[in-house]
Design goal:
The protein has 20 helices and five strands. It has helices at residues 17-23, 38-43, 48-66, 80-93, 107-120, 151-164, 205-219, 223-226, 239-244, 249-259, 270-290, 313-321, 327-339, 344-357, 362-372, 378-388, 404-411, 416-421, 436-442, 456-473, and strands spanning 2-7, 29-36, 72-76, 98-102, 125-129. The chain has a five-stranded parallel beta sheet, sandwiched between helices. The protein is globular, with a radius of gyration of 24 Å. It binds flavin-adenine dinucleotide (FAD). Flavin-adenine dinucleotide binds next to helix 9, helix 11, helix 14 and helix 16. Flavin-adenine dinucleotide (FAD) binds next to helix 9, helix 11, helix 14 and helix 16.
Length: 474
């Protein structure tokens, strides 16, 4: 019997449901495959840093599988549709009896998988698993059986179901009795730009688990106090690993529970605060499955389709480059450009700035983020953007507009984060860091730093008018 495991965004051997299921029959021969689809990735705006992160983890995965007698085959084609054709041929050549894979939630991925299932079954048995989520989409519903549109009742129902479900993590499978004699393909580099990730995110499942363990032991208690301060290492920085499945949400939950056994009872503590973020991750993914149009750049709130956005390429470029003249916005964008990661509070601030100060279509921001983020994830990114733009379900109300100066004062009071990323402001004293030109004027100095590209108070009025006009027209 030959079992084929198709790896996609679940690049790990520990607690991988499809892999474990494929290995259950000790007599089966298990082989694995990964298919790179650069043209599809281009359509999805995948960041070169994420491509490099995937590539390096693929190498690690190949090693870990090979130690277990499982060869990882590798193929590169263009689009998902090409990958379907290739996989069908591959399964025939290798006399595959059963195909194992973990579900994805995005619409192109779902359609690809449906095509594979149709082409292979019934000759090949298909075994699919919910692996990337604590609870499968569609399993947490209102009394009427539909998906929640509001987060808080979703969370309540979610936690209830969670307490009844089996979320144990599975160990990595043992080495096979009859390992496959075939040589696994050499991993030729992706035909896709790759950009090194650097030391911020070390490679490997073990590195991810170490980070998780340390965070749950040492930092989680202070999470609520520290999670909004970008100058402090107050969050887990596990998102890149979760996004490509080097780590599973079950591993996160179980480690959190091991270190904080009271997490589900003590709902005002840091551990619950962190669990809450894992539940937001689930919420956005469940939403994507209930409303696939979210995958197609559609807003959740219908009337927001009528907003007249500004066509302002220079402003967009200034935002992208971190040259808006608002220090907290610029520091954040420079962090993104330099590392591929941005702190959550800052993601909210820069999203609000693009949409509600510059009145630029949130989809420009969504795409730019995807093209840069090492943790790029359609559901979380879309959810975050639609939240900030007030176009999403349970989003910030449209009249709630962050003031970028006061956000900076609140969350980076001493300007430590700003100074780390905007060296042009290194001489500006703490109390003036959020409005550096005022200080420079008094000092009769000229800063090599842009003046604010827009006046916040005026922009706020214009944005309210644009949203209200669209709402009234609807
Ligand atoms: P922690 O605070 O340690 O949280 C733990 C985990 O929970 C994260 O790793 C992540 O998987 C999940 N999580 C945390 N916050 C959220 C959230 N608001 N929504 C969904 N999941 C969450 N997250 C991504 O993983 N990929 C994205 O592409 C992405 N784009 C975003 C865009 C915008 C505009 C906004 C406002 C948020 C976005 N987020 C995204 C959510 C969040 O900013 C990141 O998950 C978080 O900053 C990652 O850092 P961390 O691992 O230290 O998080």
């Amino acid at each position: 019997t030959t079992h084929l495991v198709w790896f996609r965004n679940d690049l790990r051997v520990t607690d991988n449901r499809a892999l474990s299921a494929a290995c259950e029959d000790v007599d089966a021969t298990v082989i694995a495959v990964f298919i790179a689809t650069p043209a599809q990735w281009r359509k999805h705006d995948m960041a070169p840093r994420q491509a490099a992160f995937i590539y390096q983890h693929l190498q690690a995965l190949q090693g870990a599988l090979s130690e277990r007698g499982i060869p990882l085959y590798y193929h590169q084609c263009e689009l998902f549709s090409d990958s379907v054709d290739w996989l069908v041929k591959f399964a025939a050549e290798h006399h595959v009896d059963a195909l194992f894979y973990n579900d994805q939630v995005e619409i192109n991925e779902v359609e690809r998988d449906a095509a594979v299932d149709k082409a292979l079954s019934p000759e090949v048995q298909i075994q699919r698993f919910n692996d990337s989520l604590l609870l499968p989409p569609g399993s947490v519903t209102t009394g009427e059986g539909s998906m929640y549109k509001v987060y808080t009742p979703f969370r309540r129902a979610f936690l209830q179901r969670l307490s009844e479900s089996d979320c144990r993590s599975l160990p990595a499978p043992h080495a096979r009795k009859n390992s496959h004699p075939g040589e696994a393909a050499e991993l030729s580099p992706f035909d896709y730009p790759q950009q090194e990730v650097g030391d911020d995110f070390p490679i490997g499942e073990e590195a991810a688990r170490d980070r998780l363990r340390r965070f749950c032991r040492e930092n989680v208690q202070d999470y609520l106090e520290q999670r909004d301060l970008p100058a402090v290492d107050g969050t887990s920085t596990l998102s890149p690993y979760l996004a490509i499945g080097v780590l599973s949400p079950r591993q996160c939950l179980n480690r959190l529970r091991a270190e904080n056994p009271e997490v589900l009872e003590k709902t005002d503590g840091g551990a619950f605060g962190w669990l809450n973020e894992l539940v937001w991750r689930e919420f956005y993914r469940h939403l994507l499955v209930a409303w696939p149009s979210l995958c197609k750049r559609q807003p959740f709130i219908e009337w927001t389709k009528g907003i007249t956005w500004r066509d302002a390429p220079d402003d967009l470029q200034a935002w992208q480059a971190g040259k808006t003249g608002y220090p907290i916005v610029d520091a954040a964008m420079r962090q993104l450009n330099a590392t591929g990661w941005m702190h959550n509070r800052l993601r909210m601030i820069v999203a609000s700035f693009l949409v509600k100060d510059l009145l630029i279509d949130w989809r420009c921001g969504e795409r730019y983020f995807m093209s840069k983020l090492v943790d790029g994830d359609l559901a979380a990114n879309n959810g975050g953007w639609q939240w900030g733009a007030s176009t999403g379900t349970d989003a910030a109300p449209y009249f709630r507009i962050f003031n970028p100066t006061t956000q900076g004062e609140r969350f980076d009071k001493q300007g430590r984060f700003i100074k780390a990323w905007v060296p042009e402001l290194s001489d500006v004293p703490e109390r003036d860091i959020h409005q550096p030109h005022r200080w420079a004027e008094k000092q009769r100095r000229v800063l090599d730093y842009p003046f604010p590209i827009i006046d916040h108070a005026r922009a706020r009025k214009d944005t309210l008018a644009a949203f209200e006009a669209a709402k009234n027209r609807a």
